Amino acid sequence: MDIKTVMVIGAGQMGAGIAQVCAQAGYKVYLNDLQEKLVEKGFEQISINLSRQVDKGRMTEDEKLLVFDQLFKSTNLQQAQYVDVVIEAATENMEIKASIFRELDKYAPEHAILATNTSSLPITEIAAFTKRPEKVIGMHFMNPVPVMKLVEIIRGLATEDDVYREIEAMAIKLNKVPVEVNDFPGFVSNRVLMPMINEAVYTLYEGVASKEAIDNVMKLGMNHPMGPLTLADFIGLDTCLYIMETLHEGFGDDKYRPCPLLRKYVKAGWLGKKSGRGFYVYD
Ligand code: CAA
């Protein structure tokens, strides 16, 4: 298949980043969300990212405009009829995904691949909401999407080999490094990352060290670019909790039990950078 047109569903941090890298790679992109103002916010984020590239002399103003020529605003899922690949990056909630994939199954052309950027929900279950589970696949980008090289590509139980190969080739065209993963809770990235973050929250909860000390140990001692508590704030504490709950439920093992302090912060609305407060306070 010659992939030319893509729809990205969800114009939040991840969706906007995915739309940006797709447009920069030359794909025509519909950025879709429920309301026009959400799509506009996504466009603003892309504009800020590209302006940073212009300021650094890596891109001209004209090249920035060319990227925007590839981008189209969408609030109507019926426009999936014009695309070859859909990448869903909506809220991490199975009911929301179910409704989106049922709609996409109605509107997307027969040849279209339906990918999801879910960070931990089972691809096989999402695929079962459609009559084309062989065309459904996980395409898990990392935040911030324009910077991070990894794309985890997750095969559902029914995903066709050809679909895997198309998405692998697309990830390479996006200048990313694809890694093949099977469909188990948390895939590889979050199965390894989230228990580390959860353990960092436990060390804070048990008074082993201050938040700054915990972050410094991992930054200076293990060369991580961000300490685990800073990273948790950056990802969103609600997302971290949701993924830990998915691991806990999926494996049934107590080692994945979310730290009570993480639950408490989420209940308080301290969700990290996006809410202005998490383990740290943001302006
Ligand atoms: N969007 C776009 N570009 C960004 C950005 C953003 N939000 N934040 C930083 N950048 C760019 C900067 O412009 C800069 O670009 P150049 O090198 O081209 O100049 C580059 O990233 C480095 O930025 P800074 O110098 O400002 O800061 P830094 O060196 O601390 O890097 C970082 C910032 C790349 C975010 C780095 O701290 C990092 O790698 N952190 C860890 C990120 C991580 O682990 N992500 C995965 C999270 S897990 C996930 O996403 C999956 C999930 O399912 C939860």
From TrEMBL:
<feature type="domain" description="3-hydroxyacyl-CoA dehydrogenase C-terminal">
    <location>
        <begin position="186"/>
        <end position="282"/>
    </location>
</feature>
<dbReference type="GO" id="GO:0006631">
    <property type="term" value="P:fatty acid metabolic process"/>
</dbReference>
<feature type="site" description="Important for catalytic activity">
    <location>
        <position position="140"/>
    </location>
</feature>
<dbReference type="InterPro" id="IPR006176">
    <property type="entry name" value="3-OHacyl-CoA_DH_NAD-bd"/>
</dbReference>
<keyword id="KW-0560">Oxidoreductase</keyword>
<feature type="binding site">
    <location>
        <begin position="10"/>
        <end position="15"/>
    </location>
    <ligand>
        <name>NAD(+)</name>
    </ligand>
</feature>
<dbReference type="InterPro" id="IPR006180">
    <property type="entry name" value="3-OHacyl-CoA_DH_CS"/>
</dbReference>
<comment type="similarity">
    <text>Belongs to the 3-hydroxyacyl-CoA dehydrogenase family.</text>
</comment>
<dbReference type="InterPro" id="IPR013328">
    <property type="entry name" value="6PGD_dom2"/>
</dbReference>
<feature type="binding site">
    <location>
        <position position="97"/>
    </location>
    <ligand>
        <name>NAD(+)</name>
    </ligand>
</feature>
<feature type="binding site">
    <location>
        <position position="119"/>
    </location>
    <ligand>
        <name>NAD(+)</name>
    </ligand>
</feature>
<feature type="domain" description="3-hydroxyacyl-CoA dehydrogenase NAD binding">
    <location>
        <begin position="5"/>
        <end position="183"/>
    </location>
</feature>
<dbReference type="InterPro" id="IPR008927">
    <property type="entry name" value="6-PGluconate_DH-like_C_sf"/>
</dbReference>
<dbReference type="GO" id="GO:0008691">
    <property type="term" value="F:3-hydroxybutyryl-CoA dehydrogenase activity"/>
</dbReference>
<dbReference type="InterPro" id="IPR036291">
    <property type="entry name" value="NAD(P)-bd_dom_sf"/>
</dbReference>
<keyword id="KW-0520">NAD</keyword>
<dbReference type="InterPro" id="IPR022694">
    <property type="entry name" value="3-OHacyl-CoA_DH"/>
</dbReference>
<dbReference type="GO" id="GO:0070403">
    <property type="term" value="F:NAD+ binding"/>
</dbReference>
<dbReference type="Pfam" id="PF00725">
    <property type="entry name" value="3HCDH"/>
</dbReference>
<feature type="binding site">
    <location>
        <position position="33"/>
    </location>
    <ligand>
        <name>NAD(+)</name>
    </ligand>
</feature>
<dbReference type="Pfam" id="PF02737">
    <property type="entry name" value="3HCDH_N"/>
</dbReference>
<feature type="binding site">
    <location>
        <position position="274"/>
    </location>
    <ligand>
        <name>NAD(+)</name>
    </ligand>
</feature>
<feature type="binding site">
    <location>
        <position position="92"/>
    </location>
    <ligand>
        <name>NAD(+)</name>
    </ligand>
</feature>
<feature type="binding site">
    <location>
        <position position="143"/>
    </location>
    <ligand>
        <name>NAD(+)</name>
    </ligand>
</feature>
<dbReference type="InterPro" id="IPR006108">
    <property type="entry name" value="3HC_DH_C"/>
</dbReference>
<protein>
    <submittedName>
        <fullName>3-hydroxybutyryl-CoA dehydrogenase</fullName>
        <ecNumber>1.1.1.157</ecNumber>
    </submittedName>
</protein>
<comment type="pathway">
    <text>Lipid metabolism; butanoate metabolism.</text>
</comment>
